[in-house]
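Researcher: Next entry in the queue.
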Amino acid sequence: MECISVFDMLKIGVGPSSSHTLGPWRAAERWIKELKDSKKFDKVEKISVDLYGSLSLTGKGHATDYAVLLGLLGRDPETIPTETISKEIAHIKATKTLNFNSEKVLAFDAETDISFNRKFLPFHSNGMTFTATINGRNNTSTFYSIGGGFVVKEERSNHKRNFEIKCSFPYPIEKGTELLKFCRDLDKPISEVVLDNEKSIRTEESINYELKRIWDTMLECMYTGCHTEGNLPGGLNVRRRAYDMHQSLKGKTPYENPVEWIYAIRNTEVKFRQILKWVSCFALAVNEVNASLGRVVTAPTNGSAGVIPSVLMYYLVIENHDGDFEDIKRFLLVAGEIGSIFKKGATISAAMGGCQAEIGVSSAMAAGALCELSGGTPEQVLVAAEIAMEHHLGLTCDPIGGLVQIPCIERNAMGAIKAINACELALDTDPNNVKVPLDKVVNTMWETAKDMNTKYKETSEGGLAVGVHFSDC
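Model: Structure for this entry, 473 residues:
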């Protein structure tokens, strides 16, 4: 069985989109590796890129062209200083050259050598073809960004089962029923079963290091969003709201960094209505950073990156002031496993399934993870995930102007609130009385995705994207 690591579901990258930004970026990197492995890289005379389908229709708003350029430069989305991105792109456009993998300078006109083709390739709606001219002949390679930063080649027969990592977990899991069986047989919570799987491919020290790095990125992202004011880039002139909300909520406890910030919030008197505002503030903060080409964690996608950190932050600053790294670790392990079940059985790509595949899945991941930390049984954890997804079924992806701003940013706040509510409902639920198990809702989400009109799948050709004109904003 092919399996998905938690670190496939939770990736550090640059916004605004995992499928339209991180995926194409990684595809460019993989193409360079192909050229090097085949001993063709040094012979390349010219390069060009064709973007298809959803990558073309919303690519400008999602900075797909920027991502491709940065990948061709050989920059790493996990480490590139985000403040240098605009300068790098401007240099390429001004000089009409590109330093291919930082090794050889080629003539490159970003306006003509990156083509946006409205045509959809048959394998997947997020297709892209890289072309290298060698000895006067064109050599092409086509990749598909299938959501969450995952990139595959067409020769793989089933796009739902194209995973980055092949391994042999001791407890292979494809469905919720299989996960619960392992929990019962081993008498372990979900987080421990997932941890055992991860330990089969890396040391626990490495797992802890990477999970801490993921959490630190999430926390830094929330902190940055809450302390940055002004309008978002892209032309819609959307005002950042996290800054204003944070100013009205934060109180007077002093702090100088993200860690001190957590303690400052814990020391702030929080009333019931303010709980909702705090959660919304955290979620908005992340996705405002994401919308401005900031660094975020795909959870499971960039467009839904705010749900999981905001719910985890809620647990740490509202529910449990003694929460520590072990709680963070358990939360992320459970969230990653729930996300992998949705990826295996359905999709996490809005271009394939609409926003139910992004916000819906992230809400389910957060709900289940919160449920375990709140004392829920493995059965209740899956009930929480099911409830969260059930109430996102059919949610369309219709970004105005192809930008991950309206309605995407607010949807993260709504997904976070739904996750908390789903957890509370699950904790008061006897799993024996549940009529809709998680596996059924996963399958239903996939069937809904297949039935959904293409214009509601990240094309900006339906819903709010046409109901509200870009010029009206």
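Model: The CA atoms of residues 208 and 326 lie 9 Å apart.
Researcher: Noted, moving on.
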